[in-house]
Structures are given as structure tokens and as C-alpha cells.
Amino acid sequence: MVSTSSFKTTKSEEIFTNAQKLMPGGVSSPVRAFKSVGGQPIVFDHVKGAYIWDVDGNQYIDYVGTWGPAICGHAHHEVIAALHSALEKGTSFGAPSLQENILAQMVIEAVPSIEMVRFVNSGTEACMSVLRLMRAFTGREKIIKFEGCYHGHADMFLVKAGSGVATLGLPDSPGVPKSTTTSTLTAPYNDLEAVKALFVQNPDEIAGVILEPVVGNAGFIVPDAGFLEGLRELTKEYGALLVFDEVMTGFRIAYGGAQERFGITPDLTTLGKVIGGGLPVGAYGGRADIMAMVAPSGPMYQAGTLSGNPLAMTAGIKTLELLQKHGTYEQLDKITKRLTDGLLQAAKDAGHSVSGGQISGMFGMFFTSHPVHNYEDAKLSDLTKFSRFHRGMLERGIYLAPSQFEAGFTSLAHTEEDVDQTISAAKEVFASL
Ligand code: HOZ
After folding, report:
1. Higher pLDDT, residue 204 or 174
2. Atom of ligand 1 nearest to the CA of 29
3. Sheet (strand 184-187) strand order
4. Whose CA is nearest to atom 4 of ligand 1?
5. Mind listing the pLDDT tens digit for each residue in 383-392?
6. CATH number of 327-394+407-433
7. What is the tens place of the pLDDT at every residue in 113-133?
8. Is 273 marked active-site?
């Protein structure tokens, strides 16, 4: 842990300065560049449990968790041991393996909507593929997505997108042909009337509705009571598919994801993050009659050299085994509630307007007293205050997502002491804002 006076990031700065000559913005993914919070990003050296160490030797309590996968804590010894054994057998087969069957079976047993699954390499790939499947199955082209929801960086989804697009305040990306996005219709999150209007205006043209059932890419936003139920009814009424993008929420807010937690079963689901246990994995799955469209069972083509990679499957299997242990989600819920209750109270005590909350090990806080139901509400957050808060916490050894428009994540490795230390740091920072 560091005190603000001893906080030095000389090596990080040197490495990141060089990185900027080598890679656009010095990063492999935009939000990491700290553009919206100012200052240079810290450069990691290693991670373990709830902690990160940077190249200057500073230690941080981590609430990013490699953007969600590290739910058991970073570099869990059982995951590492399983990977060591798998490594001895080779790094990639490009052919069927038993590990794929095991992880597929675990996913099918856990996630209510999934009767069959296809493994890919990222959440982006999962969403891109599921969109093709939605269109192939229904014979319709248009889809509805929600403002501020992020489904990866495939062309058709870069419309009013969240995550890095929201963080950097970018307009819809150049390079995306208009023809690719004319079929992407958008509505405000939590607005059933807007969705209904789109169905009425586009009769028999909408293949389906895709959403983050709990939003993590516009900050943390929960569905209003009745919203998910309403989408389930509307999609059935208009002959369209309902798709939950559970790349963030899958195995995170409940073992069976948001669909288990809220009791709403979509037709298709995308997964990523946790199911890869820290290695690159995505997946899409759903009703067997729809999945039968996927090649080579059916005509909808999708493929991948590293898909079903044995190392990624192994890390995923071990991670899900750890999550199956009694009380894991209660533990995540308890520790995260302690964190968000403490942060919100500390902010209010210091006179700041905040709103926020958590579900299991996923959380968020906005600098606005206005309840946040959608992306427009999220944008009311005081972003300058957020940046100063982020910096203050970083200097006190707390690593938060460097964007107001990203959710936070805890893990089974976070302790009450970690959380209390985080709240103490926050009290100092709130007092200084
Ligand atoms: N956009 C992802 C999180 N919502 C990943 C960000 C990153 O890895 O930099």
C-alpha cells in the first residue's frame, strides 16, 4: 500500500511513453489509456488475489479484476495449477478436445437459456456471431440495441455504444459503413414504450433485441422492475428473439447470470470474461433449434482457429468449479455491499451527490443524486469530480476503472479489511474534492 507522498510512478511513465510510440495511444484497448481521468496509466508488473503491483513496486487493491474475469481473485493457485498441467499437453489443438465438452456441459447446466453452446475467443466475437445467428434464424435484418450498451466493437454494434466509445465521448466510429448500421435501431435502456414503438414502426423486420440485462458499459445500471419481463413479452408478441449479452453478468451476478437472478429466460445468450478464467474466451448459446443453424450443423457460418483452446477451457472449468462452492455468491454480495454502502455513505457525509449500488460482485457509483436508469442519466454524472476521485484513490493504492462508464468488480479474494481500507481512502479523497 502507498501513501500519497510516496506515490511514484517513474517507471510506469517511462514505459508508457515508449508504448505510445509503438501502439495507438500506447494501449491494446482504449479505456486503459486513462484518457478520461487524466494522468498516465500505471503499468502492471504482476497480480495476485485482490491486488496489483505496478512496475514501480506500488501495490493496489484492485476493483477492475481484468474487467471482470478475476472473480476468484487474480492468479488463483488452483487455476494456475490446472493451467500448468494443461500446458504440458500443448497450447492449441485446432481440433476437438474433452475440455470443450466439460466446459460446455457446465455452461449448459448453469445458464437457463443455453441448450447448446459455441465457444469463440472474445465477447466481441460472441456478440458479432449471435447477431448473424439472430438474422439467419428469423430471416430479418433489423435489431434493437440500447443506448450506452456495449456489445463489442463489431460494426453493427457501434451505434450509441458504451464502454470506450462512451468514455472517450466518441461519435459513432468512422470506418463503419452506413449500410452496416442502418439495421441497428436504438432505444433508451429501461424504456419499454420506445421498444414497442420500434416494433410497431418496423413490422416483421426486427430479428431481435439484444441488451446487457444489467448494464456495465455505461457505468452500473440495473433494469427497472418489469423491464426484462416486458422485453420478453414484446419479443414473443412480435416474433423476434431476445438476446442477453451476459459477457459481464454471466457467472458474475449469479452462477446462472442475470437470467437466473431475474428469472427471465432469453432465446440466446453471449458470454465471455468469467468463463475464460482470465484467458481469452467468448461463447454464444441458446435454444437448440436456433443453435442448429450454426455450421456445420446448419448453414450459418462462423469459425475460429483458437476457438475452444485447451488452456482457455481449462481456466474456465477450474474457475466455474471454484464458483460452485457453497456460499461464493453470498460472499461476493456481502463484501460488495459493504463496499458500496461505505462509499456512498462516505460521499454523502462529505456533501457529495452520489447514486449507485451493486448486485453480487458488480457495482458502480455516479456523481449525481439523480437515480440512473439509462445512459442519458449516467451522463449527468460530474465527470470532473469522478476524475479527481479516481486519481485520489489511485494515489492511495486503490485501482478503480479509469472511466465513469465502466462497472467495478470485486472478487472472492477481497477481504473486509481491503474494503474498509478502500472506504478510509475514499473518505480522504471525498474530503479533498
Ligand atoms: N471494454 C471492455 C470493458 N468494458 C474492456 C476494456 C479493456 O480491456 O481495456
Report:
1. 204
2. 9
3. 116-120, 282-286, 268-271, 241-245, 206-211, 142-146, 184-187
4. 163
5. 999 999 999 9
6. 3.90.1150.10
7. 999 999 999 999 999 999 999
8. yes
